Amino acid sequence: MSVELPLLARGKVREIYDASTPAAPDRLLLVASDRISAYDHVLPTPIPDKGRVLTQLSVWWFEQLTPVLESFGASHHLISATDVPDDVAGRAMLVRRLEMLPVECVARGYLSGSGTKEYARTGSIRDVALPAGLVEGSRLPAPVFTPSTKAEVGEHDEAIDFAAVVSAVGAGRAEELRELTLALYSRGAEIAEAAGIVLADTKFEFGLDGDELVLADEVLTPDSSRFWPASSWSPGAAQPSYDKQYVRDWLTNESGWDRTSTPPELPDDVVAATRERYVTAYEQLTGRSFA
């Protein structure tokens, strides 16, 4: 990929370029690569078309979630997914430059992953108490807000309690983030359920444009969410998924990797199966063919 714009930042899976012009200042170009990360490492093997899936699915979700955002007096950062350089068409978004808020806004509707481990130890996820008797894959009585820090590349996001969000952004903004995160999750879960997918959990990022709260980055993708086939959902064990859990499972159970040394190359069958899961999530959610 070649973009003739100033590179501002390179993250785990995307690059951010300065796309400002005198007529249109404060614009960024977000380009999603085919890189994939797991356990806070960028893996050496890309997943073909992954960046295009993430971008096109995010664009679709921004449209679906606009009514929820507007009901909170908020908006999203997308300006255009078509007015982008030809070399990155399909995997880039022209967006507003924002003052990003320093928290990951995580919503959970089901118990899974690190949430299951913490619940097993404490009966809660940070300051959110949960009922007894839940198991991996259990549906929660109501969606919960379980935020985390926003780590730099190579570092690990850490779960935080609501008081830490208040300390970071103020009491009023923290409450707004919690309410909007849960509203967006609930609407996303409703749409996913109609498409035969369980949205187990997801994370959102927000920024400010002046005083306006703005949904940013990617939204409800296989990189930022856990998607399970509704037809096979069965609490009590890890669930089949349409996200990068397949890669995590291979790394954990088959690769022998210690999670600290250089990650191994992914086998061809793992690459192909991961791509299939990402494309399936896109097609099943949107009702569109991925090309």
Biggest beta sheet attributes = 8 strands, mixed
- Runs in which pLDDT lies below 50 for 5 or more consecutive residues are none
Overall pLDDT metric: 94
**CA(first)-CA(last) distance:** 19 Å
What CATH first level of the largest domain would be assigned? Answer: Alpha Beta
How do the helices and strands follow one another from N- to C-terminus?
EEEEEHEEEEEHEEEEHHEEEHH
Overall morphology: globular
Percent of residues in β-strands: 25-35%
Q: Number of folding domains?
A: 2
Q: Count the beta strands.
A: 17
Per CATH, the superfamily of the largest domain is ATP-grasp fold, B domain
Radius of gyration: 19 Å
SS summary, helix count: 6
Give me the CATH architecture of the largest domain, please. Answer: 2-Layer Sandwich
Structural class by sheet pairing and helices: alpha+beta
Helix content: 25-40%
CATH topology name of the largest domain: D-amino Acid Aminotransferase, Chain A, domain 1
GO molecular function, one term: phosphoribosylaminoimidazolesuccinocarboxamide synthase activity
EC number: 6.3.2.6
Domain SAICAR synthetase/ADE2 N-terminal: 8-261
Family: Belongs to the SAICAR synthetase family.
